[in-house]
Amino acid sequence: MFPERIRVFVTNVATRTEMSEFVWTYDDMNATVHLRETLFTLTLRYSFSDTERCGEFVLIYTDQADKEYRFYTNQEQGDYALAQRLYEVAQSSGMTLPF
Predict the structure, then answer these.
(1) Tell me: the pLDDT tens digits for 1-52?
(2) Which one of 9, 34, 43, 98 is at 20 to 30 Å from 83 when CA atoms are compared?
(3) Which long-range contacts (CB under 8 A, 24 or more apart) does 11-20 make?
């Protein structure tokens, strides 16, 4: 489960991504989206846990000093919907659509 500060940050990043302020890269082979900004980088990776038998996300925040912070959520936890929302808006942020 995400700590409250991370939950607020992820909500803000998702909203700003929806408003086209951020464009993420999407790696479909690794089910990963990645955002590189001046002050931080974010990576969000989806996987299916065979152990827990559910989908899970890992969010990796890297600060300017190159220090990594990892946060986890899965389908059994309340933050899963928030992580899924961010993953989906991030995945679509770099798409070119016909209309």
Answers:
(1) 899 999 999 999 999 999 999 999 999 999 999 999 999 999 999 999 888 8
(2) 98
(3) 11/82, 13/42, 13/86, 14/82, 14/85, 14/86, 14/89, 14/90, 17/86, 17/89, 17/90, 17/93, 18/89, 20/93
Q: What is the dihedral of CA 84, 88, 22, 74, to 10 degrees?
A: 20
- Write out pLDDT tens, residues 67-91: 999 999 999 988 999 999 999 999 9
Contact assessment for residue 42 and residue 14, using Cβ atoms and an 8 Å cutoff: no
In terms of residue numbers, what domain contains 28?
4-93
Is 98 inside a domain boundary?
no
Q: Is 2 helix (H, G, I), strand (E, B) or coil?
A: coil
Q: Is residue 99 part of a domain?
A: no
Structural domain total, the chain: 1
pTM score, whole prediction: 0.92
